């Protein structure tokens, strides 16, 4: 449990807020490049600011301030002809990386991009998409650094045939075994969780010790301030930002990064367009239709009764907490180790900004940023006595077979 | 209950303190006996356990706030789908399957509960003055 005051401090991100000042030190996904195919300007609602993406006089993309009506809904997507620019308002630089237009809303010079796999992979190997969640960004992030929930929230009571699972989370067979990932998650629900601070945020290791002297090792990452990098299948990783629209809404933006084979972008996009409504990328399953909840399915097939798409499970979990989770009533356990550590880093960053010491924040210390690579993000099964070395080795093998430079 | 919806619509009830008839008994005679109820602005969940007894407890899981009206009705209680925390009809947590084996943490976890009983064909709840649980 934390105080209401602290909950406000770590969740609210508008201009002139403390957490807002921390987030404004970083690049944030503002729009998908596919959105730019419509006529500019397009609206961008980001960090509590009403903005629009335009081409400036030099032909570069830029975010400018948009005039918004009082009471305009948070998730508002006016047509380009209806967008009015506030010519004296703040404007911000934009940089396109791998299908996402990133924006920098901070003061001074924007930091370098780290050399993560999602940025250095060939364009053919990275696919971008986004989706709306109607809740605060922090609870959206926190579910992504909580390795235990997958054993419950994403529990499938039956294991699926692995044939048709391209582009879906947790549907692969576990490396070096014939065991579906769904079975490992179901049968070993109490992972040991190790959390280490890194240059970029946190490395989170979830160990599921199995009966046969083997350990399932799942390595995921928190990338400061609002992203995660996790394995999706043996072939792909997910790098996902939970970008605040305002205090009560956020977008997830994901770069799906493939190691060996190019991403089948057409299939990935078609799968996701079936679940979302443009132009807001609002999910078709939502609070209003009870996320497609089916009590019979909950009894027989899935833990939630909300279908096989794990994004919907996560969306339900975080939206059901309320627009901003009331952390004065929470009771964190051992399974929440990474969440506790993350909040500590965020509070340290808030304090450092208050003391005028921006260089103390992760990835804000100049030249070193470009040397940050990876991060290692992998599922592996290894002998329990050597899980660390074997997990690292499995990642190196995958990287060695990769056509783009994935060396670490 | 004539209509079988996956999650019944929230019942909103504003009433003075004391015992209040909140629903007809038939309202819970549905395949999954669980109804979200808002009593004087407090969001609660009403359910019937396998012993046939009623529970009327806070709507948000005390762990991280997930919405218990989508909980799994099983093992004579209500289980949160987020991390499997299991609650009995009094709101007492009885199991935390993601916490380390042998952890006693669950004993200290209780969802706020509102007294509830059945009589005269109705479901009655006891509303306390200034109840803000």
Which tags fit this structure?
heterodimer, A: 408 residues, alpha+beta, Naphthalene 1,2-dioxygenase Alpha Subunit, Chain A, domain 1, Rieske Iron-sulfur Protein, 2 domains, six-stranded antiparallel sheet, 10 helices, 18 strands, globular, B: 133 residues, mainly beta, four-stranded mixed sheet, four-stranded antiparallel sheet
Here the CATH topology of chain B equals: Rieske Iron-sulfur Protein
Cα-to-Cα separation, first versus last residue of chain B? 29 Å
Structural class of the secondary structure composition of chain B? mainly beta
Mean pLDDT of chain A: 94
Amino- and carboxy-terminal Cα gap of chain A: 39 Å
Strand content of chain B: 35-45%
Percentage of residues in DSSP E strands of chain A: 25-35%
The CATH architecture classification of the largest domain in chain A is Alpha-Beta Complex
CATH class categorisation of chain B: Mainly Beta
Q: What level of helicity do the residues of chain A show?
A: 10-25%
Overall strand count of chain A: 18
Return the CATH architecture of chain B.
3-layer Sandwich
Specify the overall morphology of chain B.
Answer: globular
Compact description:
By secondary structure, chain A is of the alpha+beta class.
Overview of the structural elements:
The complex is a heterodimer of chains A (408) and B (133). By secondary structure, chain A is an alpha+beta fold. Chain A has two domains: 4-22 and 114-400, Alpha-Beta Complex (Naphthalene 1,2-dioxygenase Alpha Subunit, Chain A, domain 1), CATH 3.90.380; 27-110, Rieske [2Fe-2S] iron-sulphur domain (Rieske Iron-sulfur Protein, 3-layer Sandwich). Chain A has helices spanning 4-11, 18-23, 117-120, 137-144, 181-187, 265-273, 295-300, 310-319, 337-354, 387-400, and strands at residues 27-32, 42-46, 49-55, 61-65, 91-97, 100-104, 115-116, 126-133, 192-197, 201-209, 214-223, 227-231, 236-246, 249-258, 276-277, 282-283, 373-374, 378-383. In chain A, a hairpin with a 4-residue loop joins strand 10 and strand 11. The model of chain A has no long low-confidence stretch (mean pLDDT 94). Chain B is mainly beta and 133 residues long. Chain B has a single domain, classed as Rieske [2Fe-2S] iron-sulphur domain (Rieske Iron-sulfur Protein, 3-layer Sandwich), CATH 2.102.10.10. Chain B has no helices and eleven strands. Chain B has a four-stranded mixed sheet with strand order 1-3-4-5, with no helix packed on it. Chain B has a four-stranded antiparallel sheet with strand order 6-7-8-9, with no helix packed on it. Chain B starts with 10 loop residues before the first strand and ends in a 6-residue tail after the last strand. At the A-B interface, helix 8 of A face loops of B.
């Amino acid at each position: 449990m934390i105080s209401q005051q602290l909950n406000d401090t770590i969740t609210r991100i508008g201009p002139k807020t403390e957490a807002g000042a921390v987030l404004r030190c970083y690049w944030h996904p503002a729009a998908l490049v596919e959105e730019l195919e419509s006529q500019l300007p397009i609206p961008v609602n980001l960090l509590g600011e009403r903005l629009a993406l335009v081409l400036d006089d030099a032909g570069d993309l830029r975010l400018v301030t948009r005039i918004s009506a009082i009471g305009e809904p948070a998730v508002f997507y006016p047509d380009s002809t209806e967008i009015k620019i506030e010519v004296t308002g703040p404007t911000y630089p934009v940089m396109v990386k791998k299908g996402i237009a990133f924006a920098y809303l901070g003061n001074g010079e924007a930091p370098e991009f780290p050399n993560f796999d999602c940025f250095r992979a060939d364009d053919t190997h990275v696919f971008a998409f986004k989706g709306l969640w109607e809740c605060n960004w922090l609870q959206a992030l926190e579910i992504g650094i909580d390795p235990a929930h997958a054993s419950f929230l994403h529990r499938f009571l039956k294991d699926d045939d692995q044939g048709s699972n391209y582009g879906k989370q947790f549907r692969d067979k576990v490396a070096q075994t014939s065991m579906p990932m769904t079975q490992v998650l179901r049968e070993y629900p109490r992972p040991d969780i190790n959390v280490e601070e890194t240059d970029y945020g946190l490395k989170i290791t979830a160990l599921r010790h199995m009966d046969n002297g083997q350990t399932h090792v799942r390595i995921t990452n928190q990338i400061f301030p609002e992203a995660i990098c996790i394995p999706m299948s043996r072939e792909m990783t997910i790098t996902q930002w939970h970008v605040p629209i305002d205090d009560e809404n956020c977008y997830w933006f994901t770069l799906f990064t493939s190691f060996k084979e190019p991403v089948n972008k057409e299939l990935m996009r078609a799968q996701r367009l079936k679940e979302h409504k443009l132009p807001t990328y609002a999910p078709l399953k939502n609070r209003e239709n009870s996320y497609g909840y089916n009590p019979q399915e909950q009894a027989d097939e899935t833990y939630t009764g909300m279908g096989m798409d794990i994004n919907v499970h996560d969306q339900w979990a975080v939206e059901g907490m309320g627009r901003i989770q009331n952390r004065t009533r929470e009771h964190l356990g051992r399974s929440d180790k990474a969440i506790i550590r993350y909040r500590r880093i965020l509070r340290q960053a808030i304090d450092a900004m208050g003391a005028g010491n921006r260089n103390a924040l992760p990835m804000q210390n100049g030249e070193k940023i470009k040397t940050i690579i990876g991060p290692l993000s992998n599922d592996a099964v290894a002998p329990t006595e050597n899980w660390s070395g074997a997990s690292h080795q499995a990642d190196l093998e995958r990287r060695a077979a990769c056509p783009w430079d994935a060396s670490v | 209950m004539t209509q079988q919806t996956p999650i019944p619509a929230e019942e909103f009830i504003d009433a003075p303190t004391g015992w209040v008839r909140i629903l007809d008994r038939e309202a819970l005679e549905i395949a999954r006996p669980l109804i979200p109820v808002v009593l004087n602005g407090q969001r609660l969940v009403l359910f019937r356990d396998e012993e046939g007894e009623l529970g009327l407890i806070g709507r948000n899981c005390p762990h991280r706030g997930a919405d218990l009206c989508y909980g799994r009705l099983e093992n004579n209680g209500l289980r949160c789908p987020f991390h499997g925390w299991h609650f009995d009809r009094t709101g007492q947590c009885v199991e935390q399957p993601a916490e380390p084996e042998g952890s006693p943490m669950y004993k200290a976890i209780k969802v706020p509960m509102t007294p509830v009983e059945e009589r005269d064909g109705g479901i009655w709840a006891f509303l306390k003055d200034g109840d803000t649980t």
